[in-house]
Amino acid sequence: MDTNRLLEYYDLGERNFRGAYLHHANLRGANLSGVNLSYADLSGGNLTDACLNRVDLSHANLTNADLCRADLSGSNLNDINLIGADISQASLVGANLVGADLRSADLSGTDLRGANLQDAELIGATLSQAMLAGANLSGVDLTNVDLQEVDLSQCILDTETSHRISHRWITWNGKEVVLLKQ
Questions:
Q1: Closest by alpha carbon to 58, among 74, 41, 76, 44?
Q2: pTM of the model
């Protein structure tokens, strides 16, 4: 499916694009709220400034995609592949990122308040200045993840995750981090 056809069908009311092949699609600034793109291939795509709130992108491939400033609030991104993606300055408030692969992704300045990142893969990711207040980070390895100036207030961390935080990167802002007891 090409980008123009997707947008045309969306304008006609279609919302189910499960498994769509949109490799290198240019959806910059597109409004695709509420769409089902689970299992879709959007690798290398340009989704800068796109409105993707309440979208189902579970199991989708967005390797090296550009999601800078995209609105993915309330979206289902479980088991998504976002390796090397640029998600900087995006909104992922309340998003489901359980099992997401975010290795080497740029999440700097991203709003992840209340997001569920349980068991997500973040090795080599950049989260500097990200907002993670109230996010679930249990099961996440934060070793060598750039957490410079990150707000971890009221985050949910299990004991293992809390021991794998590279403390040299954190600005605590005088707030607590909630630790889960094993």
A1: 76
A2: 0.88
